[in-house]
Amino acid sequence: MQPARVVFCDLDILCIKHTPSQNSFLISINPMDSPNALSTAPAAGSRKNATLICVPIMGESVEKMEIDVDKAKAGGADLVEIRLDSLKTFDPYRDLNAFIQHRSLPLLFTYRPKWEGGMYDGDENKRLDALRLAMELGADYIDIELQVAHEFYDSIRGKTFNKTKVIVSSHNYQLTPSIEDLGNLVARIQATGADIVKIATTALDITDVARMFQIMVHSQVPFIGLVMGDRGLISRILSAKFGGYLTFGTLESGVVSAPGQPTLKDLLYLYNLRQLAPDTKVFGIIGKPVGHSKSPILFNEVFKSIGLNGVYLFLLVDDLANFLRTYSSTDFVGFSVTIPHKETALKCCDEVDPVAKSIGAVNCIVRRPTDGKLIGYNTDYVGAITAIENGLRGKHNGSSTTISPLAGKLFVVIGAGGAGKALAYGAKAKGARVVIANRTYDHARKLAYAIGGDALALADLDNYHPEDGMILANTTSIGMQPKVDETPVSKHALKYYSLVFDAVYTPKITRLLKEAEESGATIVTGLEMFMGQAYGQYENFTGLPAPKELFRKIMENY
Ligand code: NAP
C-alpha cells in the first residue's frame, strides 16, 4: 500500500476521515469559517496557545550554560533544555545540583548519546544514572530515548518522583515516516508510560510536515512533533496552531541543537508565536531559495499592527503542485510566489487573473474562501512599473498624469523569468519599446515575440547602445546576497541609461545600482518594487486596502 496522502480540509471540527479510494486523510483543525473571515487577533500580551517555547542550552561548562539559562529567561522562554552531553566534564551530583539550585526556568535534562544523534559516547549505565539522579534532585523534565525507555522505567519502578515529567523521544535523521508508521511510533512511545511523547523526524520535502501535523492534532497525550531541516521549519512554528506541547527556539541564530531550529526571538517577535491559535490563517512565501525574502518580516508585522489573525511563513518548496495539493485546507489561505515557481504557479491555479495570464507568471495565490479554489494574480507588474514611473517622475507615491513617462522610451529588461515577463509586459503596456536580454537567448526570443519586442543575448548587452537615455531593468538574481560582487552588465555600458532599476533587493543597493548612480543614472531599488507588489498581495489576501504608510515604515527599519 502507498503511504497515505495527507490532505487538510475544514469539513468538521477536529475530524479525521480516511477515504480508502483516494488513500488520503482529510483532517481539520478549525470550525468552518465564513467567507473572508480573517478574524482579528487577540489583544497583544495575551496568550492564545499552550505551546511552550524551550531554549536548548549547550556549552562546555556549567557556568556558561547558567548564563545562557538566564538569557533564555530574559528573552521570554518558558523552559530550557540542558544538554548534559555538551559539557566537557560532568560531575553528575555537583553539576545537576548546581543547575537545579540556579534554576530560573523549568529545566529539561537531556543526555543524548551518539547513537541517537547526541554527543555522549560513554558508559550507558552512567548516562541513565545521571538522568535518574536528575529526577531525584527535582528536575522538571527529563528526556529519555525510546530505545532505552522500558529499561529506564523498570529501573525506577516503585519510586515516586512527583515533580519530574518524562519525555520519551525518538529521532529520525533520515526522513519522516508514513502516517501509519508515525502512528505506530506514537503507540510504542505511549506504551512505555511516557508523560510526553516526542518525535523528531527529517523533512525531505515540506509536505512531510503535514503528516506530523496530522499526528499532532489527534494525539491523546502531550505531544512534541518536530520535523528537522530547512524544509521542516513550519513544524516549529505551526506547532502552536496545531497543539504541540513545545517547540524549540535558540538563543542565537545558527547555534542549534537540531537542524532547522529558529531563534527564540523569531518565534516570539517575527512569528508572534504566543498569538497563534487553531483558527489562525496561514500565509507564506513559496520559493527555492526563499530565506532571502523580506515578505515574512513585512506581512507578520502588518498582521500584528492591524490585529489580523494570521501568520506568514517561509515555505521552501520543491514541488509546487504537490505542496498546494497537500496543504489544501482553507487554513492555508494565501501565498506569495517567488523563484523559481512563478511560471509553474500559473498552471497550478484553478483560475488566473487576465493580466497574470498575459504575463505568463503568477506571484500571488489566494484560496477563495467560498469554494477553496486557487486564484492566481500578478502584482509584480504594477509594483515594478509604478516604482520605475515614480523614479522617472522623481517621486515616491502614485501618479498624477495619465500618460506614462515610459511611453516611447527604449526599455531593456535583463531576464526572461517571472519578474522579467512582468516588467516586459508592463513596459510594453505603457508604450515603451522593449528589448529582452537574457542568458538563454531562446527564452529572450520567446518573450520578445510574445510582447512584441526585440531579443538580445545577455553576453551582447555590454555593447548594446543604439541611443542615449535608455531604461535598464535587471530581473535576474545576479547581485543578490550572498553574491553581491556580481553584476549583469559592465559599468562602462551604464552611461547610456537614464534610469536603472534592479529587482534584487538584498542588498538594497546592489553593485549594479551603485555603478549606475556613479555613471549618472537615476536608480530605483528593488525595495520600491517589493513594496508595490506587496500592496497588491495584501489587497488580494485580505480584500482590504493596503496600509501603505505602515508598509513603508516597517521596511524603513530593515
Ligand atoms: P525566475 O523566474 O527564476 O527567472 C530568473 C531569470 O534570471 C531567468 O531569465 C534566468 O535566465 C536569469 N538568471 C538566473 N540566474 C542567472 C545567472 N547566474 N546569470 C544570468 N542570468 C540568470 O526568477 P524571478 O521570479 O523572475 O526572480 C528573479 C529575481 O527578481 C530574483 O532575484 C527575485 O528575488 C527578484 N524579484 C524581486 C522582486 C521585488 O519585489 N523586488 C519581485 C520579484 C522578483 P535563464 O532564462 O537563462 O535561466
Automatic annotation (TrEMBL):
<dbReference type="InterPro" id="IPR022893">
    <property type="entry name" value="Shikimate_DH_fam"/>
</dbReference>
<dbReference type="GO" id="GO:0019632">
    <property type="term" value="P:shikimate metabolic process"/>
</dbReference>
<dbReference type="GO" id="GO:0003855">
    <property type="term" value="F:3-dehydroquinate dehydratase activity"/>
</dbReference>
<dbReference type="InterPro" id="IPR006151">
    <property type="entry name" value="Shikm_DH/Glu-tRNA_Rdtase"/>
</dbReference>
<dbReference type="InterPro" id="IPR013785">
    <property type="entry name" value="Aldolase_TIM"/>
</dbReference>
<dbReference type="InterPro" id="IPR013708">
    <property type="entry name" value="Shikimate_DH-bd_N"/>
</dbReference>
<dbReference type="InterPro" id="IPR041121">
    <property type="entry name" value="SDH_C"/>
</dbReference>
<dbReference type="InterPro" id="IPR036291">
    <property type="entry name" value="NAD(P)-bd_dom_sf"/>
</dbReference>
<protein>
    <submittedName>
        <fullName>Uncharacterized protein</fullName>
    </submittedName>
</protein>
<dbReference type="InterPro" id="IPR001381">
    <property type="entry name" value="DHquinase_I"/>
</dbReference>
<dbReference type="Pfam" id="PF01487">
    <property type="entry name" value="DHquinase_I"/>
</dbReference>
<dbReference type="InterPro" id="IPR046346">
    <property type="entry name" value="Aminoacid_DH-like_N_sf"/>
</dbReference>
<dbReference type="Pfam" id="PF01488">
    <property type="entry name" value="Shikimate_DH"/>
</dbReference>
<dbReference type="Pfam" id="PF08501">
    <property type="entry name" value="Shikimate_dh_N"/>
</dbReference>
<feature type="domain" description="SDH C-terminal">
    <location>
        <begin position="526"/>
        <end position="555"/>
    </location>
</feature>
<feature type="domain" description="Shikimate dehydrogenase substrate binding N-terminal">
    <location>
        <begin position="285"/>
        <end position="365"/>
    </location>
</feature>
<feature type="domain" description="Quinate/shikimate 5-dehydrogenase/glutamyl-tRNA reductase">
    <location>
        <begin position="405"/>
        <end position="477"/>
    </location>
</feature>
<dbReference type="GO" id="GO:0009423">
    <property type="term" value="P:chorismate biosynthetic process"/>
</dbReference>
<dbReference type="GO" id="GO:0004764">
    <property type="term" value="F:shikimate 3-dehydrogenase (NADP+) activity"/>
</dbReference>
<dbReference type="Pfam" id="PF18317">
    <property type="entry name" value="SDH_C"/>
</dbReference>
